[in-house]
Input
Amino acid sequence: MLRKIQKLCKPENDGERGPSVRGCGMPREGAPHVNIHLRYGEQTGELRAGVSGIYRCGSPWLCSTCAPAKALKRAEGVQAAADATYKRGGMSALVILTASHSKKMSLADVRKLVQDASSKARKSRAWVKAQEEFGILGAICGPEVTYSKENGWHYHQHLSVLTDGPTAGEIAAAGGDAEKLRKFVAARTQAAGDWLAETYKEKIRAAGGKVSDKHGCKVRVAHDAADASEYMSKGSMAWEVAGGHKDETKAEASMTPWDIALAADAGDKSMYARWREYMSVMPGTKSCVISAPLSEKLGIVVEDDVEGDEQVLHENDDVVGRVVSPLWKRWMRHGLASTFLLRVEYGGEAGFADAVEQTNADSDVIGKEKEEETVTDMLARLDVQREEQTVALLTRLEQEVVEWREAASLERAAVKAYQHRFDLTATPANIVEIAGERIRQRADAMGQRAVVAGIVDELAESYGVRIAESDALRVAIAAPDWQREIEAIIPGRWLSREEVAALRMVA
Output
């Protein structure tokens, strides 16, 4: 399924970047291999095979691999909120918000109509009053999308409206009767859900939309925390990722995004258009967010469920084998990665090599249909490429060593020539060179012209030779870069007492 979706999400124009789901499951950049693990699931206790060293796109809307994982993570937050609400004696009103739609309406239009009305209903002054009147702690919203060939896109929202525990008036009215008190809270919770549904309908109609009084919205009170949590687990987790589990009539009546993807992959052009439309609209849509104020009221901590790329680094525990990255990519392209992991689960660590061999055989069959090279040829070609890359790397390193040695030799020769070029004689030409170096040393802080006169006087006093300031300045400016670099390493070359003595003695 993932591979099919990745093909469906291919950009229509060259050079464009498609959604991140296209890279989901692929090895991270530069990784030579992926690690294969066998671990027992925390919830099921079953032995499951997994892979590390790959990217996960984290998309709850486009990725058949990441969507169930994201849904489970959202369900944990919803469960925590429901448990905390019922623990304090509160309840949850389960609300479905829909709107009338036709096949002519785009998904973007249907979503905007429902989403805006729902948002406005929970951001008005009336909502603040309703919170006080019904003891509403907050609301959790989970959007869901389906499609039917008869009526088009059906975007709707599942809401869990959480109400607080018994009020003082309800406790007094119940007179110690627990069942009576429960009914009081349930009635208030039902009223909260009904209020939201009615306000939502007003917003829909104000926006020019239509909604049925009888079928547009549904409201009921959850039996318990588990009921509230399961209800909010609608959406991507409830979609049948594998496909093919519904009879044809139901599939035609209500198609999940995965159903649309399967039909599009099978060649249905209209379904391909629907998938591209869905792909452009739904990513980024928030689902089952537990707001900070609600978390604070309930005393729970829920991690932010951020949609985005996740890099899964190599994990080193419970590793049963490794697969080189090019081979894993080939299996991904051929839709065999999950088949391989199932074989690892079946055969365990002892059967790892057999799982690789069987998957390679399947890959060769698919590759032959696509006129691709065999796995053996591919691995042999990669070995040759690696050998060529190694030889090229060694050659480059050898060249760098030679260049470094030549550079070092040239530098030593330059230093030697620089140290002895004046022959330590106090001639006007040598004094000019000495002056030029001193000017360069001091010019950074003071400027060249500010130091020229002083340096000329200093040298005349030391060596008994007076030079023209213009000659000193000219030599200072004319020094090449290599000479300046050497002077930075051994500054003040002409300040040593031995050289001054030698110069004076020669002079």
